[in-house]
Amino acid sequence: MTKMVYRLAQVMVLPLATCSFDSLADASPERKPKTAAEIDWRPVELMTNEQKSKLPPVCKGGYVVPSYLPDGAPMSAASQSEKPLRARANNATFDAEQNAYLNGDVEIFQEPYLLTGASANLDQQASNVTVDGDILLRSPDMLLTGEQVNYDISTGTFDIKGASYLAHEQGFRGQSATVSRPSEHVMVIQDGTITRCDPNDKSWSIAASEITLDQEEGVGYAEHFRFRVQDVPIFYFPWVTFPINDKRKSGFLYPSIGSSNVGRGMAITTPYYFNLAPDYDATLTPQYVHGRGLYTELEGRHLSSYGLSKINLGYIHEDEEHINDFPWRDGQRWGLSFENDSTFSGGWSSSIDYNVVSDDDYLEDLARALSIENETHLDRVWKVSYVDDIWQFDGSLHGYQTVDSAVTEPNKPYSRLPELNLVGDWDNDVFDWTVGSQYVYFFRDDEFLTGNDKVQGNRLRIKPEVSMPMEALWGYLTPALKVDQTNYVLEDNGLGSDDINRTVPFATLDTGLYFDRPFQVGDQDYNQTLEPRLFYVYSPEVEQDDIPDFDTSVTSFSYSQLFNDDRFVGGDRVGDNNRITLGLTTRFTQLSSGIDSAVFSIGKVYHFEDRKVSLAGAGASTESESPYAGEFILTPIAGMDLKVTGLWDDNESNTVEGNSTLSLHTADYGYVLNLGHTYKDASDPLEQANISTIFPVTQKVSVFGRWLYDLNDERTAGTLAGLEYRSCCWRAQVLSSSYLTDDSELSHTILFRIELKGIAGFGESGEELDKQVPGYLGRESLYH
């Protein structure tokens, strides 16, 4: 074999540092024509473990960029016009103008492009290369094949006739009459197709007279758009835009179709997204609801240097169904919510959460998602906070809108106009000092209230505390003293004086010991701890029956309440205490990982005096001891979690309360099972069973669902059932859910959703589904 090297003269106009040619005598074997996607496609069995880890489990393979740089040369940071061009072929000739004519296994490399073909002409004056015959053009993120390519040496732009193309990172592939790259981030496809399905998979594709992919903007534009399934056109649109990566863009989002037997009927939704500016956007969602009319929602978001603001509006001009139910109303209904979180310099921050609706049934009729729960009160709060090394301050205005007609006027919550909280912490080598204070003005409309329910007014509460923590490796001892000082200035207090002062001192002692021992089970080393704890609290009885109830309730006794110093939450009652709590915790910890495989805790309260302070008769007691309160957490292996909490009355030998949850899932969350049981023996007994699951029927078909059953009423309280089909390039879901309305009627809804990989997704609805089927988001994270 004879090898000849030609170097172009430096005096040429062509802006190249160096251009060289190799002439090879022997020709390589003829290549079988393949599309770009077929060339770089690798079945799973031929991929490395690292490459497999980037694939969703349902995919049979993926695209791999082979090494193609000559001699493994690294990429240069120079501009395209400054990068040298290297070429090689079986034969090379030059004319008088030093234009080159190459034939046979042509390879042209100008970083980052490798261009191959049967023959090539290099026009030095035009700074252009034309390559013919089974051409291939490769870069790190793109591969194209075709019949002929014109390549601009100085800019790296090109156009290819009879092309197939592949964008590796996005997974887009297709074929077209011509593909051109007019600039660095833009590719134009003439009379072509685009899809993200695997080679030879025709599940869906887009065909258009012209498709423009702008990678910098993250958007695609298509003229004479046809959406096809198995090459059969399903619908046509003159012009559309669609996302090609995670960047925001304006355009229609995918529609959804759903129905409900209560509140709303068949609904068709066609959202449109407005990418208005880098710092704000909006989504307009018109919906036609059968039996009601046109309902429109608008969501707007604004991101500033201080934080994020979000506003949601919903409006229907004339709700036909609502007029039928309430003939005296005009049918105009609306809802508004506004949220803002801002952070300022110097430790200051602000948050706003404002919500208002036109009527009590608005959320249920027009804004119902997949949730089983219902709202009773809507928050309206503005909070300003400050934090430094010593002080914490927050001030807020907090109001409500009650949207549950079953809540009577006397039971509606008070607004706090304002609420001011200030807490300071200091410590030295011996003592820790804390001062907590709160001022609140409680207000509510008293137009429909009588008697004691009309009361409103001011409350100032100050709580200084000093403690002396003593700690060692084997245990701790913390005595503490606290004073709860409260002053009221009231209006219309029918219980007593309008000016009330209350002072309650507290003394507490908290102490515990640590014991541990190592042991081994099989090859696993563990450490078991034994942690006994004693907590004592004393506070005297102070008469408080002349104080109204603005915000106070009695805590439900549970394991988490064993070591609290008061049984009341809120500032209008302070309990009398003379009690001791004995608790014991043991935990089994894997030494290799530091993970607790099992934690068991139990405790009991012993009272030395009767409790006399009460709130509307609740909170007082003559019982000398509490039920046993326990908590058991077991995580023996990855993918299994068991948590049991409960109360056991040893005097009556019965369970007072119990909550159990068992969660099982495989590593890929393909199989998920959650079992739950809630039991409460009280004046209003509660017993519910809860089961949720994700179960793959085949590799591509899965079912998931939740069933909440009320064992006392012997009825279903809520359900969710879903059927999903997923392939590597698309998936679809059918969701059916139900929930109890305010009228104890079981509402049923059905929703159909579809996702085309790389084009549209299911959005934030995954978070809502994860609340009902824990583990759903873990599964979603594996579906890229």
Structural key phrases:
14-stranded mixed sheet, 784 residues, lipopolysaccharide transport protein A fold, elongated, 48 strands, mainly beta
Structure, described:
This protein has 784 residues and is mainly beta. Helix content is 4%, strand content 56%. It contains 6 helices and 48 strands. It has a 26-stranded antiparallel β-barrel. Strands 1, 2, 5, 6, 7, 8, 9, 10, 11, 12, 13, 14, 15 and 16 form a 14-stranded mixed beta sheet that branches. Strand 38 (577-590) and strand 39 (596-607) form a beta hairpin. Mean pLDDT is 85; it is low at 1-29 and 369-373.
Which helices and strands occur, and which strands form pairs?
Elements: E1 4-7, E2 19-23, H1 36-40, E3 41-43, H2 49-53, E4 61-63, E5 85-89, E6 91-94, E7 100-110, E8 113-123, E9 128-139, E10 142-152, E11 158-167, E12 172-183, E13 186-194, E14 205-214, E15 219-229, E16 232-243, E17 251-252, E18 256-260, E19 267-269, E20 272-277, E21 280-289, E22 293-303, E23 307-316, H3 320-325, E24 333-343, E25 348-357, H4 362-366, E26 377-387, E27 391-402, E28 415-427, E29 432-443, E30 456-467, E31 470-472, E32 475-491, E33 499-513, E34 515-521, E35 524-539, E36 553-554, E37 568-569, E38 577-590, E39 596-607, E40 628-634, E41 640-649, E42 654-665, E43 672-680, E44 686-696, E45 701-710, E46 715-726, E47 730-740, E48 746-756, H5 765-772, H6 776-780
Parallel strand pairs: 2-5
Antiparallel strand pairs: 1-2, 3-4, 5-7, 6-7, 7-8, 8-9, 9-10, 10-11, 11-12, 12-13, 13-14, 14-15, 15-16, 17-20, 18-19, 18-48, 19-21, 20-21, 21-22, 22-23, 23-24, 24-25, 25-26, 26-27, 27-28, 28-29, 29-30, 30-32, 31-32, 32-33, 33-35, 34-35, 35-38, 36-37, 38-39, 39-40, 40-41, 41-42, 42-43, 43-44, ...
